Amino acid sequence: MGTVGMLRAAGIGPADEVVVPAFGNPEVAEAVIQTGATPVYADIDPATYCLNPDFVDAVVGPRTAAVVVVHRFGRPADVARLHRLGQRRGLLVIEQSESDAPYAEAERRRANAAYLTARLSGVRTPEDGDAHTYQQYVVRVPGNGRPDRDAFARAVRARGVECRVPVKTPVHRVPLFRRDVCLPETERAADETLSLPVDASLTRRELQRVVSACNALGGLLQPAF
């Protein structure tokens, strides 16, 4: 059953609000709107890119009926705290994963991620949390007042390494779903994150090419004077 079906089965409707993340694709907010309810955005944990329970708690109001939690990039959200919050505040907590992968594939991606983390410099590597399957290997390229992430991405691609911006526009900035809310961690993540290759099929030579391309660009990250 999809998100819309789960919300409708729980009786969520026009009188309700549902807390959702803005860092990601708009499908979750769209599912809430399809039930007639109103999406309310909460900020994320900068390490997991998933909803931060403290920020969720801060936006819960008298009409809040549910929270939709998305496990992002293969890193699980803090579901234990979110479920405790749901029990305390009387909220339905719905979990949504981006995708699943066979065990062997996930293990290979973990090994590739460990290789990159041990060798990359000049970018902020992801934290290795419990059960992280690295569906995407997402690094941070801090801004320093100019679009370093975008310049970095162009330079990495010029060196033959594919990379992509995982979330180009947070949902609360998309016209159809726009809300005037303060989500500093979401904004920062959207401006700084870059997904590097970590596929299970990558060879050691290809991983080394990723490392070499990124480490050669460390000067882009120095503060502008």
From TrEMBL:
Cofactor(s) named in the record: pyridoxal 5'-phosphate
Keyword Flavoprotein in annotation: no
GO annotation terms (biological process): polysaccharide biosynthetic process
Alphabetically ordered keywords of this record: Aminotransferase, Pyridoxal phosphate, Transferase
Top-level taxonomic group: Bacteria
Pfam families: DegT_DnrJ_EryC1 (PF01041)
Similarity comment text for this entry: Belongs to the DegT/DnrJ/EryC1 family. L-glutamine:2-deoxy-scyllo-inosose/scyllo-inosose aminotransferase subfamily.
Name of the featured protein: DegT/DnrJ/EryC1/StrS aminotransferase
Organism annotation: Streptomyces minutiscleroticus
